[in-house]
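Posting here for the record, re: nicotinamide-adenine-dinucleotide.
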Amino acid sequence: MAEARRRARVCILGATGSIGRQTLDVCSRHAERLEVVGLAAGSDARGLAEAAARLHVRDLALSDASSASRELLAELAPSAACEFGERAVAELCERVDASIVLVAIVGAAAIAPTLAALRTGARVALANKECLVAAGSLVCAAAAPGQIIPVDSEHSAIFQCLQAGRPSELSRIWLTCSGGPFRGLTREELAHVTAQDALRHPTWNMGPKITIDSADLMNKGLEVIEATWLFGLDASKVSVLVHPQSLVHSMVEFADGETIAQLGAPDMRGAIQYAMSYPERWKAPMEAPDWRKMGPITFDAPDFEVFRCLALAMEAAHVGGTMPAAMNAANEVANAAFREGRIRMTEIDEVIEVVMDTTSPASVESLEQILEVDSRARRAAAACIQELAR
Ligand code: NAD
Ligand code: MG
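Prediction output follows.
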């Protein structure tokens, strides 16, 4: 009889969101290989209880420690062992002795949980990009070589393409970008789009924050910085390439000028699964594209004048130190204000620029310092938004 395979113990941080739910789907499809042992969320007690019931998961953590959340969870998941508060989220992967931690929390809230996950020695399948933008040097210093496997589709693509050469032979990354729903608009037109317009993303179905980031191209700026940390490159070696079909997930150019691309369906479950199966490849969670029916594949340059968020993120990458943390925090606040209809889309970059202009960047020394820079930038962004609303 074949020896029973030991299943990987998977802990999902941010289990109720877009990536979290797709991860649960991948885990259900490969239940003989992946056992979900821990789930965490921010404030969605109902979503957490439902996911726990569906996959028979006992150990949970909810960042929101209010009595309303505690009562709701006790009512919906009476047999679960749920801990509450930010610390409980960070400590969950150790509590459940996870072998894979999938980090799908949105925003800089993922920094401490990601560092905690790395300390356990588990594989960290990283979907969250803000933790690398804000605290890339701390996250990379805490990671053993190969411990982080990227989930972001472009970075998963680069990770796969890099297997065609040696890291030292990499000369440039071509980071593809759908261009978002507002590709081709003028700055004036961009000033009049609404959050509802932006939520209609052409190719990906994502959480609300990244949907707006994808519409104003801040997402691509964050991804440039994410790539510099994951692959140990200067931002000048990362070129953004507009590719509306989202079929080429990114490309790597090697020293000899040869370029390797990774193509696939625009479905995050491919990258999520690969981050857990690597170095193996398992049965696909979705249909592979029939390339005869895919039509033309096009490439173009991004418009840095209209999409100023991208230019600002590149500038933050260039300045380095604590500047990307300030830029990221300002973006989180401005992105939320746009979703709430309090500012225009073009004011997102105005807020970020004001915050960057008033930030004196320092070299990154500690988590406490990054969290301090983050809260200072949030306060400055909130004040700037109040001014704009007058
Ligand atoms: P989402 O808003 O759909 O889900 C976010 C999840 O994080 C939810 O489960 C929420 O409860 C949880 N959460 C929020 N604050 C928390 C906290 N303080 N502690 C614990 N959990 C918390 O977001 P998403 O679209 O799934 O994106 C998640 C991350 O993955 C983001 O960093 C995003 O940039 C990245 N990403 C997403 C996609 C995508 O297709 N959705 C693709 C690539 C990368
Ligand atoms: Mg991406």
